[in-house]
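Justification of computing resources. Each target in the renewal requires a structure prediction run like the one illustrated here; the chain below, 285 residues long, is used simply to show the kind of job we budget for.
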Amino acid sequence: MKWTNDRSGNVDDRRGAGGGGGMLVGGGLGTLIIAAIIFFLGGDPSAILSSGMSNSGAQTEQRNLTPNEIKVREFVQMITAENEQTWAKIFRENGMQYRPAKVVMFEAVTQSGCGTAQAAMGPFYCPADQTVYMDMSFFKELEQRFGAKVTEFSIAYVMAHEMGHHVQTLLGTTQKVDQLRRSGKYSEKEMNRVSVATELQADFYAGLWAKQTDNREKFLEPGDIESAISAAEAVGDDNIQKRSQGYVNQEGFTHGSSAQRKEWFMKGYNTGDIRQGDTFNALLK
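Resulting structure tokens:
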């Protein structure tokens, strides 16, 4: 992908800062749940940030960022800026005002509005502080453990997916899903289907972002969309279940199959129309 000249001031780089890290102590169910969702691309992680986990008090030493880490920060600032511009335009065209999300880059561990964030959770969006949290080591694991082809644009896709969750929060979708979950009226199977619809809509928004941003910036190059699809398919529920437990249980899906993730990302990209992204009616009939 081609780099643009846009940079966002809403990126907080906590890598190398020192003092914010430390080992987490805890275990039991909380640890098992976190292990089960490793490398999923998810939304609100508060349900799996176990209150039984605490910071041991160990501190990380301050260090200078490497030239490559500084370049990665610049890349994240660029992608954040492109999300801000594209979504501001889409909201404006639909008579709404867009409020930008913040992005926090960290390593190992940091604090979020949803609790303690760990690298093992993968990138996530926290509705409580409307912030995307990213430990860049996730992408090495995405390639090594799940077979994705990691490129600059696959990283951009992951960020766009998390920004999609921010869009859901601004539109009230996140709050409605949370109300359903808290009501206790629906079974785990039913709520899993709602979760799948939520995640696939974020994939749709990522595809929509790619299309609209390319219309404005012409930043896509050959192979970029394919690399995003590779990342989306790698974190499909069926692929992760096969690799982790050797079989597929569709009732346990929470993010959608590899085929579904590709389908909805491409629907967003091919239509470029936010009105085509109603995954809830499509999946919950």
